[in-house]
Amino acid sequence: MTQSTHDPSPEAIAQGVDEEAVESNRRLYTGWQWILFAVLAITYAVFHLVSLNVLPMETWSYRIVHICGALILGFALYTGVRFSEPDQPGSRPWVKGLGYLLLLPAAYALLQVWLMQRTLAGGAMRIDAAVEAWHFGYPLMLATFAAIVLSWFQRQHRERLASADLALMACAVASAAYLLLIYNTPMRMSTGTAFAPPGIAYAAIAGSALILELTRRVAGLALVIISVLFLAYVFAGPYLPGFLGYPGLSVQRFFSQVYTDAGILGPTTAVSSTYIILFIIFAAFLQASKVGDYFVNFAFAAAGRARGGPAKVSIFASGLMGMINGTSAGNVVSTGSLTIPLMKKVGYPGKSAGAIEAAASTGGQIMPPIMGAGAFIMAEITGIPYTEIAVAALIPAILYFASVYFMVDFEAARKGMQGMRKEEIPQFRRLVKQVYLFAPIVILIAALFMGYSVIRAGTLATASAAVVSWLSPYKMGPRAILKALQLAGTMSIQIIAVCACAGLIVGVISLTGVGARFSSLLLGLAGVSQLLALFFAMCISILLGMGMPTTAAYAVAASVVAPGLINIGIQPLVAHFFVFYFAVVSAITPPVALASYAAAGISGANAMATSVTSFKVGLAAFIVPFMFFYSPALLMEGSWLQILRVGVTATLGIVLLAAAVQAWFFGPVKAWQRLLMLVGALCMIYGGIYTDVAGLAIGALLFLMQRGSHGGGTKAATSG
């Protein structure tokens, strides 16, 4: 990407980073339909801002509306099958007609909800079970499942809404309307018992199916398959041997409880309906004010001229962007489209360029203060204050990005790469004049540490993004604010669907007790070896996270793995950070590495080779979590002297680790020196006093040897 000839500012090397990414299965409306769904998206975003700050709703009701709104927007904007080509007709007329026909049972179910409301308002204590089944449940189930299957075959042009999806939108409204009605009566207390109204189960089954279908459309099949396996366990579990067996739950009892705060309306939706949606709106305002472009330009100015410059730009820019947008693969697409071609231009192979971008984008998820969205879920699940989690994440984030940085720097030195020319990068002194664009993030951090709630701090930061834009060329007037709200409503669909789907899995875990049985398994392993138990927990966390967005990966792993780690004596903060790290790095772990695959698509390299290389670049992320257990000072647990010592020695250990992997320090490194470096690195990362002394001694010895052999003609390894 080159500088625009229309932009007089020489610092505008990066443009379009803030542009909205449009997925291949996303509809692009025109005319009145575009206006209609833009208004719906804006209304959805405004609803959350008002509910969170001005007019709070009852908790369950708010979460039901939150999910229902995402389902309506999701089925309107994302197709269930490939679009038909512009020069080809869509599906046959009878398929389209069948979709409209399915609107009838959906509308009938919705009408019955209104009639039930009238009945309850007239003084009735409950609804007749036969009425709920025959006049609400069966029509809703028919419309939902038939429309889902029909949507897999109804192909339309990209600017047209499929009739089957219109039926699914009606089903979402009918299901949510019934749940809103019943959960605002005393019958809410009967969920999970034999006295629960049967309609709750029907509404929950339909709602779960709609969530799974939307998740398939916006996040792929991986999470859907895992969810279906967990649902199958509910009914197959009583027939399984060993620790997997459990007494069993009936369909009625399970589904009457899974759409409550024990499952879908539980912690994952609690976070998506508060913190996540708020920070999506914040990110949309930052995009509208072109802060993302500024972040990338700032990174180019700061690191572009260093050896392997574009790779270091990728580290800084992707870390900043990934911290805000919360998705590794999405961040790869937005910043990687600029940085990957430039990395290849200065000499990085395609697989290395893609791997560096994937590793840096993934690291954004562990970068405080925002940390994607995982920190908010961690705070919700553990009850640990968000600010404490953000502070604890600081040293691990430094270690991760130091690892990626030195991996990049040593590879650039080994291959004799140069940085970008002065005229190819923005002028730092001119960009510094726009440093006020960092103000929204500074305000966010300051508000959090001044004691403001996360919601209030996020709202202040969002408002400040609009105010700060008036000092830049991209002033946000009413039209730009509406555009940002529309973008927020659209961006939120994927993460809300994923969180609701993860809530379904969490519900299975809590209602069947499989999490407790897994904890007992870890406890048994810990009796043999705690390291073995940790290794097993790592494998499960990565396995559960493969192919899943970070938020869902952590939510599921936190329900399955973290309780077991806590039961073997690990502190809750350490246990959850351990799980969180491996849920995050599953995005760069072969064989299913979403962030690496997205980067390979841009670099043109082999996807598997890129994922293996990204695993190597992000190697520190697979070692550091084990150190949380042996040295809690890495998570700010301990005296300042301990924290300082462990932080410094672990960072030096990371440098040695990068040198060992890349076979370069101040010059080429021999095989026996690489082995010695690896030992020294692990000693310093471990964090014990004696191991630190041993690691420092090894590091000093290697430093003197390398300086003696290569110091005269080679720049220091830490240059650039």
Automatic annotation (TrEMBL):
- Sorted UniProt keywords: Cell inner membrane, Cell membrane, Membrane, Transmembrane, Transmembrane helix, Transport
A Pfam match: DctM
Q: Does the keyword Transmembrane helix apply?
A: yes
Location relative to the cell:
Cell inner membrane
Which InterPro entries does its entry note?
DctM, TRAP_DctM-Dct_fused
Q: Where are the transmembrane segments?
A: 34-54, 60-78, 98-116, 136-154, 166-183, 195-214, 221-244, 264-286, 390-410, 431-449, 495-516, 522-544, 551-570, 576-600, 612-631, 643-666, 678-705
Residues in TRAP C4-dicarboxylate transport system permease DctM subunit domain copies: 208-636
- Keyword Methyltransferase listed? The answer is no
The record describes its membrane topology as: Multi-pass membrane protein
Top-level lineage group: Bacteria
Question: What task does this protein carry out?
Answer: Part of the tripartite ATP-independent periplasmic (TRAP) transport system.
**Name the record gives this protein:** TRAP transporter permease
User: To which species is this protein native?
Assistant: Halomonas salifodinae
Taxonomic lineage is:
Bacteria, Pseudomonadati, Pseudomonadota, Gammaproteobacteria, Oceanospirillales
